[in-house]
Amino acid sequence: MPTLNLFTNVPVDPVIASNILRDATKAIANIIGRPESYMCILVNGGVAIAFGGTEEPAAYGELISIGGLDPTVNAKLSSTIAQIIQTNLHIHSSRFYIKFSDVQPSFVGFNGSTF
């Protein structure tokens, strides 16, 4: 159930969105050690964002997971996701924040119930 919700002020065309979805799904699943079939990635382009007082290209992400996160994993995820964003959206890693949340199974709904 790892989920990445990505916001950027850069407009995202369907081809770029597809590349991000594919690359992030594979990378996050591999780093966290979960099957790709468990992954959920959302890309929200063209969102109003001010970062450091400017509206230059920037991004913000939130990654939640039931387990699999720790300081070492989070650092690798941050680096990898920043690289995906830089490659696809040309946003420098210094203009990207990501928040990691390790949640309890009972706090995540799926298939009409919780994990």
Automatic annotation (TrEMBL):
Keyword list, A-Z: Cytokine, Isomerase, Secreted
One term of GO molecular function: dopachrome isomerase activity
Main localization of the protein described in the UniProt heading: secreted
EC top class, as a word: isomerase
Catalytic reactions of this protein: L-dopachrome = 5,6-dihydroxyindole-2-carboxylate; 3-phenylpyruvate = enol-phenylpyruvate
Subcellular compartments: Secreted
Entry's EC annotation: 5.3.2.1, 5.3.3.12
Gene Ontology CC terms: extracellular space
Gene3D superfamilies: Macrophage Migration Inhibitory Factor
Family: Belongs to the MIF family.
Protein name: L-dopachrome isomerase
Species the sequence originates in: Medicago truncatula (Barrel medic)
Organism placement in taxonomy: Eukaryota, Viridiplantae, Streptophyta, Embryophyta, Tracheophyta
Gene (UniProt): 11446016
